[in-house]
Every structure is written in structure tokens, then in C-alpha cells.
Description:
Blueprint: H1 11-23, H2 34-39, H3 59-69, H4 78-81, H5 92-102, H6 113-125, E1 130-139, E2 142-149, H7 150-155, H8 157-167, H9 171-182, H10 188-209, H11 220-230, H12 241-269, H13 284-305
Antiparallel strand pairs: 1-2
Helix pairs in contact: 1-6, 8-13, 9-10, 10-11, 10-12, 10-13, 11-12
Amino acid sequence: MPKSIKNRITQEIRNEIADEIIAKNLIYNGKVRHSDFLNRLFDLKEMPSTDYRPEYNNAYKDIYQHADMNPGDWDKGWVFTDERLNLTHCADEVYLKFLDLTVNPAMRDNDGTAKQLIDIYNKSLKSIGIGFQQEIELQNGAPKYSRAILAELQSGQTTKSLEIKRYLDSDYVKQKIDLMNQNVDQATDIAIGTGKELLETVCKSVLKQKNVMTNKDWTLSQLIKNTITSLDVKPKTVANPENAERSIRQILGGIASIVQGISELRNSYGSGHGKDDDFKGLDPIYARLFIAMVADISLFILNLNGKAELEE
């Protein structure tokens, strides 16, 4: 297979990960046979065999015979050096899918080894801004992990995104969140435009649940104000809940100013409006601030409202 693919995950990083897995005697395929694990990622039956015997005439049968049935035939790190799989030089996305599968709860027992692998991956991938973080949901009691850019891991943005997805469990919302996060450092206009659309969706879903009619001519600021008005913000456990509610609503009034800034930012630097051919997007540091604000406001509304149901 070709070895000239330009990758961010260098050969040195991949070797470092492989060396640690081998040194700590961790099993990449967990409780699943090597042949079945790898067949999820590669079409092993279309790959050649290293065994000359006709009964083992493709990679699936070859790996089954020598890695599953007779594990002593090959060295412990064979999977990382096998030229058919090309894990040392394959495209980043192929390599990351391999790492993803190694920590999939369906692949291994809930014995803590997934967390050991995650620690290895995060240590080695940190230098290029990639990391893994545990998701809120569990699968059969076992932790699930998802990939994220390092900036998300450091700021907690991934956790916020997962929480929003939990409240608004729809493919549309998940696509918007993923699109927003994926473009924050590259196509900031897409990230900003998508963030505004996400905030609009959150507000409209809450208002719809509360049977509040929306006006298509409302600005984002007006949409936010009407959403907050519909929410119960009165604390239930304080000595004077009425005074507390007045103070809280006064504080929440400041959100309108923030939202107005978001709208103006989107109009100038977000997607959805025609741009000149020499248009330059906003610096990523401001796009990350914008996305953090969208996530915080969205979660505040959703947390106050409880579980909101979204109908597409």
C-alpha cells in the first residue's frame, strides 16, 4: 500500500502508541477475535495471505489461523507492523477508526483496560491537538469514549455538546453540534452560522413544548427573551423566592445583549450571507468564544426547562 499519505499523526506517534500497548501487555482487540475485530475495519477476505497453504488463501483466514488459533505464531505487536493493514502509514481517519474500535464497549469487558488505552492515546496525540473524552452515556454499564479536538477537551466543550445532545436527541441537532465543533478552527464562518442556528433550534423547541407561538420575524434576541420569559426561574429553596426571582431575571436581561452581539457576529462573519471572494473569516479564538457562549446559553435554557422534545 502507498506510504506517501500526508498525515498529522506521524509514524513516531503511532510507534509510541504501539510500543506502550505492547509494553503494558494490553490487548487491542479486547474479547473479540483478531480476525473479526479487524474485519470491521478492513475487507480482510480481499487481502492476500502470508500463508502459502490454499486453505488460508486470504488475510481473514490467515489472521484467524495464526493470531486467533495459534497466537504464538506471530509477535505481540504484529497488528501494528502488518503491511496489509498499514497502520503505521495509513490515512489518519483509518488509524483513528482503529483506535476508536479498541475502546468500543462492545469489543472488551468493563475491566478498566479501555481507560488505560485512552490514557496512552491522549498522551501521544496531545501534541497534534487530538484527544478522547468519556461520554456521559454508558453502554451496558461500560464507559463510552469519543474523539475531540484538544481545545474542546481543555475547555469542557465536548461535555457541553454531549449534554445538549442528551436533551435534544435528534439527528438534526447532533449534526449541527458536530458541524459547529468541527469547523471552529478551520471554517469559522460555518461554525458561527451553525451555532446561531443551534441556539434558534433550542429556543424554538422549548417554546413549542410550552405551546408558545413564535413569530418568524423575531430576531434572535427576541427569541431568547420570549424563551426566558416562558421559563420558571424562581428558586424553590431560598427564604424569599420572589426577590430572588427578580434579581435572577435582571441578570438574565444581560443575555439579550450577549445574544445581540452573537447575531451581529453571525451577520458579519457567519455563513448564510454572501461574501466577497477575498473574505477572511474571524480568528478561531473568537469563534471558540462564540461557540462556548452558544453552548452555555443553550444548556442554561435546557437545564431550566428540563428535557425538551424536538420535532423536526
